[in-house]
User: What shape does this take?
Amino acid sequence: MDLNTIWFFLIGILIIGYAILDGFDLGIGSLFYILGKTDDQKKTLINSIGPVWDGNEVWLLTGGGALFAAFPYVYATVFSGFYLAMMLVLFGLIFRAVGIEYYFKMYDDKGMQNLMGKMFFVGSFIPALLFGVAIGNVIIGIPLDDMQNYSGSFFGLLNPYSLLFGVVGLVGFLLQGAVYATVKTDGELQQRATNLAMKFSWALLVVWILGTILTYILASYMFDNYNNIPVLYVIPLLTLISLLAISLFLKKKAYGKAFIASSLVIATEILTFAVGLFPNLVISKNPLQNLTIYNAASTDLTLTVMLIIALIGVPIVLVYTGYVYYVFRGKASSERAGY
Assistant: This one.
């Protein structure tokens, strides 16, 4: 396995880490008004992610930095081509941060506190939808000029196929958030989250299968690696098994296992996408202009130095992340700064 391939999958791991960890943050925020029917329930939901949400976002920053270092041409093309979409995601994440941090600080002003709750919701819902739209565009292909610059428009990114993948991503995050809420809450709030998680698991199964069928029709090249190495079909099979297991675990009130299954759904979905995409990083409408792990990569020296840094830094991050979750284990409460 060469350096280019190693970095392809390292970046994939960072994206998976972000999707799993910040996925339940985005899910909680998007379900804020559906799960939280009372003031105490809304406070409990915010406290459930309060100690970890900002640390979870670090995975996104690390993934973006790794993409810039390892595959700068992809970084330039994607971030400039998807500029407006990226700005919407950025503003959404900023709104979410403000909403979370100031929700309790506005306890004397219910009007401002309601505004913070709305910012939390909007700032979670928009990124949860647009991340999937971006993946859909990468799969179906984007128009690139001779200099490998994006030559389309923002509204061109909102095509039916990519919007479907936006829904797949959104439902996946809603599922992750609902299952996480079953772990961190109890009583009526936990039961409501359980019911929603069961519904989202079946909804995700439907839209995932529909997305797979449309991909086979519109982007059959995504199946080439699987057809060449049939054992790879085990990956999407794990997605299916994990999806079906979620409802079973929830019925048995095995909420921790349900969360592991939900996380496996996200991980295997992204891995399914990555394996189908390999060795491409960005699909162009003109296949000759595809950005791959070879024509878009940095020098071998850069990849080697960054790999050494990653092998030192990533384990430290993993240990720290595990320690934080261990310290803040248990149920969340509605108390001010309850975490």
User: Anything to note?
Assistant: Residues 19 and 172 are 9 Å apart (CA to CA). The chain has one domain: 3-327. The radius of gyration is 20 Å.
